[in-house]
Amino acid sequence: MWKFLVKNQSIEILEREVLADHQIQYVQFKFTFDGDWKKFHKVVQFSQCDEIYSIVLGFDSTTCYLPAELHVGAVKMSVFGYDAESDTTVRATTVPVTLNIRESGFVGDDDTPIPPTPDLYTQLLQKISEIQAGVNGKDGLSAYELAKENGFVGTVAEWLESLKGADGLPGRDGIDGKNGTDGKDGKDGRDGVDGITPDMSEYPTTSAVELIIQKITNPLLLKSHEHENQSVLDEITASYTLEEQRKLAEIQPSDYATKQALADEALAIREAMISLTRELHSHENMAILDMLTAEQLALLEGLQQFEDSTKYYIQTIRESVEPVISQAHWHHNLTTLNSITAEKITKWDNYGTQINGLSTRITVYSDLVENSVTRIGTAEVNIENLQKQIDALKNGSEPVILFRSGQDAIGVYAPEIGVILNNGYHLMTDFITEYPHFCSAENDYALSYSQDDFGWDAQILTVCTTAVSLTEKSGIMISYLSGATEDGSLYLVPKPEKIDVPVTIYTNNQITANNAITLNFKWLQSESFITTVTECSGVSDGKYYLAWVGRSNNSHPFIRNIKVLEVS
């Protein structure tokens, strides 16, 4: 069952459940109406696409069934009502709430015909017929409600308090009597003759007793208030009718009840009503309630309004999110999507990384070819130049080796390599004592810019302190393994005639001052070692120091060989 609270112009969902299609007279909605809604003639309205279904609740009904015609999808539900007793047209409406109907598993060749929901006009005619036939009649008015209709203003407790009459005048004290002497015990009397059973018709009837009580209590009520129909009430209490006087005359002192007894009974009823009034205002925390000021009450009312508005906004957000949640997994290709596993996604990511790496290699080599074509003038000459490089390798031209991994790497090349990390200068021989994994047997003594050693994205400037002779035809050959494809930093710093500081510091200062030659270089992602050749295009003949930056980021390269190739 769904439960709703209708307050002002909003509908708050108190309890909910999943809605499935093809139901008939099964899903029940229960409404609680607050405030003015109780006096309205109410109608619940459902709308889906261009169809509208209305269900009349009337004045007293609070439940209805979800129309069976509704199908899978979103449904808007709202409530409206009319004040039939108002002199002017008063219509109350609400903001609609969204219901989401899902597809059920019901399948049937001979579907049960869905009984159509009667239209609004037909339902109203039915309500009129029920009223005329006495169905669902309203309870009569209470004494308090009758008093309000005749002009009384106040609460039930105030009305009960008003039934108390004015206190009578104090009576006079009587004269004390004289103490008498004790008398002698009398003789036992004779047994009496059996008495006659009295005729019950001689006793006052219940109606007569009630009449007397009414005559006693009504003046107490009528004297305490002024009414628009005061003259009519005065005529009722002015005097007893002849029939009433006859009934009163029948009451004898020997009867079971006297006028005084009836008066005492009326007084007891009045005192009981006064006691009830006191109980209505008896609270354990009455002292705290009496301390509340008008400002505090206004603050409490404001907090209540804030709570109501907050609930409304939360409900509005929930209603806007629910359709997204319910539709998130409704796909035509749901079977295909469910077959996609985490393992497949991982493989696809690896494929994508490899494709990106190949694409970047092609781009780099295309740039090299384009630059060569631009410099030499024709593609044929560029191809011829590449052929010369290949021929030079075949002819055994020995390249200059600046670094080569292996067991002798530390002893042969470490003294000729400088490192700067966090503005600190080191020779490689000292650097590996602090960072032993930078060049160790674990990596076959390759240069490792690992995140495990340096943290995330440390930049390690590495300098070959032995100057090499270069021309514009030279090429820098680097054999490496990279975890990502990204721009690298490869520098050439001309060798001066005299240096007063270590070569590594001098090279770093020249790079910082933008006095170094920056070569077009990229790290290419690969799962195995690759070798790239970076041309020294536009480099003047001379001796240079070679430097590069290894970063402990996604690339974190492993460098196996660095050579300088001279092409004649």
Throw out a few tags for this protein.
seven-stranded antiparallel sheet; 568 residues; single chain
What does this structure look like?
This protein has 568 residues and is α+β, with helices and mostly antiparallel strands. The chain has 16 helices and 24 strands. Strands 12, 13, 15, 16, 19, 20 and 23 form a seven-stranded antiparallel beta sheet that branches. Strands 3, 5, 6, 8, 9 and 10 form a six-stranded mixed beta sheet that branches. The model is unreliable at 196-228, 232-238, 253-257 and 356-382 (pLDDT under 50).
Q: Kindly state the number of beta strands.
A: 24
User: Mean pLDDT across all residues, rounded?
Assistant: 75
Secondary structure category: alpha+beta
What share of the residues lie within helices? Answer: 25-40%
Overall shape: elongated
> What is the assembly state of the chains in this entry?
single chain
Describe the protein's topology.
Layout: E1 2-7, E2 10-15, E3 19-20, E4 28-33, E5 41-48, E6 51-58, E7 63-65, E8 73-82, E9 91-93, E10 97-102, H1 120-132, H2 143-149, H3 156-162, H4 206-223, H5 230-237, H6 242-249, H7 259-280, H8 286-291, H9 294-327, H10 334-338, H11 342-376, H12 379-394, E11 400-404, H13 409-413, E12 417-421, E13 424-427, H14 428-434, E14 447-448, H15 451-454, E15 459-464, E16 468-470, E17 475-481, E18 486-487, E19 489-494, H16 503-512, E20 517-519, E21 522-523, E22 530-535, E23 542-551, E24 558-565
